[in-house]
Amino acid sequence: MLRKVNKKIGRHLAPSKPEKAMIAKRVRLIGGLVLLLGGVLLILSGSGRQLNGTVGFIGLFVLLFGIVGVILGLFGE
Prior knowledge:
Keywords: Membrane, Plasmid, Transmembrane, Transmembrane helix. It is a single chain. The chain has one domain (17-75). It is mainly alpha-helical. It has helices at residues 2-13, 18-46, 52-75.
């Protein structure tokens, strides 16, 4: 039983395919950057229209999700 637990811990700490983990981090980082830029564009485009409250509010949420995505892409597992 101890050997099984040791193997599970070893696989978790040192994955057999580290390239796959790096690709996932890059995808998360790129997705976060896209959301970040989309949120900024929504906030800026909503500032001159009649529905600026709604578009700006949606842009704010997209911007926050983008910030979280960038942080997870840079510092996440």
